[in-house]
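INTERNAL AUDIT FORM
Audit reference: QA-55
Scope: verify that the stored structure record matches its stored sequence.
Auditor: D.O.
Record contents follow.
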Amino acid sequence: MPKEIAINVVSLSKIFKLYKSRRDRIKELIHPGKKNYHQNHDALKNVSFSIERGEVLGIIGQNGSGKSTLLKILASVVTPTSGMYQCNGRVTALLELGGGFNADLTGIENIKFLGSIQGYSRHEMPDLISRILDFADIGQYAGQPVRSYSSGMYMRLAFSISININPDILIVDEALAVGDIRFQQKCFRKIREFKDAGKTIILCSHSLTAIQEFCSQAIWLHEGEIKEQGDPIFVTDCYNAYMTSKQLVTIKKNNGSLQTEMILPIDENDLPKPFREIAWPDLSICETFGTGGCHIQSATIVSSETNKNIRQIKGGENLSVLLYLKADQKIINPSVHLLLNGQFGSSVFKISSHAYQKKLEFQVDKPTVVMIHFTFPMIGNGHYSFSLGVVSILENKEQFHHYIHDALLIEVSNPDIKYKMGTQLVLEKATIESFID
């Protein structure tokens, strides 16, 4: 017996009119049908999908991809330009902070107002207020005007109202990124309860780990269009591949495994034979500096066990970072650097072939692949980046021939770790080798 459809979206599009100035908006309003003073911005383009009751849909994408616009349409906050959608059941949405609140009313007055809109009677209201305030835990501020709230208190009250109104469909945007870690965990426990109760949930998040853990299906929005949809791991892999290379790539399932097809930034025939089956991303989008003489053409991360490209890493995993280099001139005493950066720019660890007393030699105009093998340390979950460099060490001074900031983006996902641990550490062991065809 097929499940009941909770949300059905068919050919949904949304066009916003963008004006250079307020004067242009007024001109067009005064003289309709004559000259257009606006430019059309396609926030959503022909989006279609359906969600069965009890499913959890994750939505990912860069800022400006149309995620918030889609959620606002489903929450009946924004009207679509074309297409149709149907939500079967009571919908509550946690969108931008303070959405739906009257800033001049107190927290309790806002609860009464929103509760009455959802059909709660005067007799049911005291119990609803009690449940919402117990979960929000904002104390005496419940009796203060909402405009005096911090962003964290906004989020606490908004989420508590959304969850305690007992909706059939819950829509959660990135608002949960605000607030202390304990309340975030409390919110996710409540979302799990909703999931276990068979409620329908739409979760929009930049955390790919959250999408993989919570969701039964996922959608990747890119410039207002659905680029991929389906299994959360498959969709997040596609998105990760794009975010690494800034190229739209195709990831195919082959015998249960994922294979990446990517436009190489280099001639495949220039690569040494053992490395031609590996996807090499284009790093030309990254910020770089250096004196020249030797350039990092590309770089990638592979599992030491499978020799397949990876972007999601666990602590204790054996991996290799590969650098594809080309020297235009003889480089004296070369060294390669690998630096892991935290989310806020902090240095987590660094590997240098010079520090490990590994001598490297590059031949002019001869492709070289430098392989850095190590066991990834147990650090906190989150997004990190590898910066890469090739330098000369002369009289204990470094000359940077080519350095690439944030060349490789990764997500650390350790299921047993709930909190970020440590900011700096020293690797006990790493080995470095080079390959010249």
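Auditor finding: record pair retrieved intact. The two ends are 60 Å apart (CA to CA).
Action required: none
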